Amino acid sequence: MALGKLQKVLISESLDPCCREILQAGGLQVQEKPGLSKEELLREIRDCDGLIVRSATKVTAEVLEAADRLQVVGRAGTGVDNVDVEAATRKGVLVMNTPTGNSLSAAELTCGMILCLARQIPQAAASMKEGKWDRKKYMGMELNGKTLAVLGLGRIGREVATRMQAFGMKTIGYDPIITPDVSATFGVEQLPLEQIWPRCDFITVHTPLLPSTTGLLNDSTFAKCRRGVQVVNCARGGIVDEGALLRALQSGQCGGAALDVFTQEPPKDRDLVNHPNVISCPHLGASTREAQSRCGKEIAMQIVDMALGKGLTGVVNGQALSKAFAPQTKPWIALARALGTVLCAAGKQVQGSVQVCTLGTPLKEAGSYLTPAVAMGMLTGGTQKEVTLVNATLLAQEAGLKVTTTHSDVAPEPDSSTGLVQVSLQGTPHQVTGTVQGSTPVLRQINGATFKQPAPLSGPVLIYRAKASDTSALATLTGLLSKAGGQLLSYHSSSTVAGEQWSIVGLSTPLSNLGELNPRVTEVFQLHL
């Protein structure tokens, strides 16, 4: 689905009323229907432009396929485990979340779990309710001086670390993205996992559920830990191998576990939940009034900003589209898309390797959003699927098109202050170069021929190559336009290469028949940019 006007949003789970209020104040029609069955969701989603969920709604490929108008799925919370992001990306549907909304609530629950494990508070409370007074049975441990391993040092992990440091705990950790220098600023010493296992008294996990993190704690890793290690999982079910955890608890290798999440929710296998050394909750990490209000408010504001064209935040799968909202990048994205379209028409192929080269310091960080824009231009018209900045990279890969990017800070005059974009079809002579003048994308070169006056790349254009000495092509084109009731809006010609020139003509309306022009040119193609 191409990014268009957002009108109707479905909220499929219970959210703070402020979510609905903000959406309605932003001019959106809102339907609140929590607790929908799969069949009901498939019916309701058909005419919705947006969908807001928490964690219960499963946004599967089937749901996305049924949603003809869907442009955005908003997850009110962290993670998007319940959304098929790849299927959404393929369809061009944006997926966004609120990564900061419930961080504090999840961190505080984790800290509470650590305290409960250390002092067996839930078990002692349950014993009291049974009329018992078992002071000796519930001997605990102090946290002061103990070592806490924090696996995953994002927002929640670092909040847990700093809070538990106040109890005198030594915090070590691991994160493949956060650098040791950064983690040192909040008191966490980073170590390789192999060095973490034998050193920690407590382990808490705060990673997304990925193939690389599934079963992060397993039979092998438990065997490397200190006997009696305590484990907390308030992140995602599956990061801790539940079978391995149960075996470690039964053998005493694991002294206790606190679980807020499970592989299957609610868990049908009750062996873990019923183990005397396990504290469990029904996925309460984000279940505070503050977190729910914050997440509902944030996702609503993000969708309203998207609807009003103000910008995109919290985007999981459309970083290039995020840039498309910035006034300074919009014309460059339009240029990259136009260059991709021109190159595809000139090269007469979609498959192969395309090299995008950005020239000039202003474009140093532009490759991340110009690459999918070029792919979008290359694919437009050549695929049955609608191509957007969200799905262009994925669809390009599936079409056998590889788009790579390089950068040089040096751009030739007169474009050194603004920059140039050069797109080449590897292994062929086909290359196009353009820049932005004001807010207009323009073509500077095509296949080695330079335009003294850069040619605008917008609207209906006709591009042809003919002998420099033969002016009959332009006369014929003017006649065709007159017959069709159209107008020639602009004309730009290139330098001569091997006795031939390229010409770019801006048209008021596309021509339906180029039959009379074909004999007078070497090649011709018509585009709508």
TrEMBL record:
Annotated EC: 1.1.1.95
Domain D-3-phosphoglycerate dehydrogenase ASB: 330-439
SUPFAM superfamilies, per the entry: Formate/glycerate dehydrogenase catalytic domain-like, NAD(P)-binding Rossmann-fold domains, Serine metabolism enzymes domain
An annotated GO BP: L-serine biosynthetic process
Keyword set includes Acetylation: yes
All copies of domain D-isomer specific 2-hydroxyacid dehydrogenase NAD-binding, residue ranges: 112-285
Pfam families named among the record's database cross-references: 2-Hacid_dh, 2-Hacid_dh_C, PGDH_inter
GO molecular function per UniProt: NAD binding; phosphoglycerate dehydrogenase activity
Catalytic activity annotation: (2R)-3-phosphoglycerate + NAD(+) = 3-phosphooxypyruvate + NADH + H(+)
UniProt entry keywords in alphabetical sequence: Acetylation, Amino-acid biosynthesis, NAD, Oxidoreductase, Phosphoprotein, Serine biosynthesis
Record text on subunit structure and interactions: Homotetramer.
Family according to the record: Belongs to the D-isomer specific 2-hydroxyacid dehydrogenase family.
Official protein name in the record: D-3-phosphoglycerate dehydrogenase
Species assigned in the record: Hylia prasina
